[in-house]
Amino acid sequence: MHFRDRAEAGQLLAKELERLRGLEDLLVLGIPRGGVVVAFEVAKKLDAPLDVYITRKIGAPHNPELAIGAVASDGTVVLDQALIQRLSVSEGYVQQETDRQRREIARRLAAYRGAQAQLSLTAKTVVLVDDGVATGATVLASLRAIRAREPAQLILAVPVGPPDTIHQLSEEADQVVCLHTPEMFWAVGAFYDVFYQTSDGEVVRLLTESR
Predict the structure, then answer these.
(1) What would the pLDDT profile of 112-131 be if each residue is shown by its tens digit?
(2) Which of 86, 112, 138 is the last residue of a domain?
């Protein structure tokens, strides 16, 4: 299964979530940046408010794309201790990288939301959306951080992800909606015809339009 772009992936996800339309305390959260493009389409179709939920990957030394953990915007840190030990990553590096990502989260929140307050998650039906998952580290940190805010229901919606990752994440969410779980998985972008880098400007535009 291939998606034309993130917008099409969001429209297809929205069809799977149609039963939520009209629910009073419904909230859609997009993980920036690419996940917000998908989430925008979901929120539009479900007639729900849209907000961002920022979680940053903690990358391995010399390989920033490899997640050894993640930090969520409320400070929740999830670390892959087995991978950290296998790569002999020092405690100092993990702390330094965690602090760096916290600063980046603060910068992005200011850029995306401006003076807008974060929407409350308590007692809401929260749909967390990303454009796909690979290791699932950032999404895992997000789910745990959101769960601590006591939503009524927590649903993860992603277009694509490997079966083992989706299975792991399904233990953290009340429901996982994933359109495609290929056994042969190499990168999220490989399942999109168009997978450009989403800019901060586009995230701000979509949030503003959704409001």
Answers:
(1) 987 777 788 999 999 999 99
(2) 112
In a domain, 1, yes or no: no
Rounded Cα distance between 14 and 8, Å, is 10
Number of domain units in the chain: 2
Give me the pLDDT at residue 66, please: 84
Listed in sequence order, the residues at least 6 apart from 85 whose beta carbon sits closer than 8 Å to its beta carbon are none
- Tens-digit pLDDT profile for residues 156-180: 999 999 999 999 999 999 999 999 9
3-state class of 125 per DSSP? strand
**Same domain flag for 134 and 184:** yes
CB 25 within 8 A of CB 124: yes
Q: Residue 78 and residue 48: Cα distance in Å, rounded?
A: 29
Within 10 angstroms of residue 142's Cβ, the number of other Cβ atoms is 30
Answer whether 11's CB lies under 8 Å from 38's CB: no
Provide the 3-class DSSP secondary structure of residue 77: strand
Query: Does 88 lie in the same domain as 49?
Result: no
CATH of the domain at 191: 3.40.50.2020
Please write the tens of the pLDDT for every residue from 1-42.
Answer: 999 999 999 999 999 999 999 899 999 999 999 999 999 999
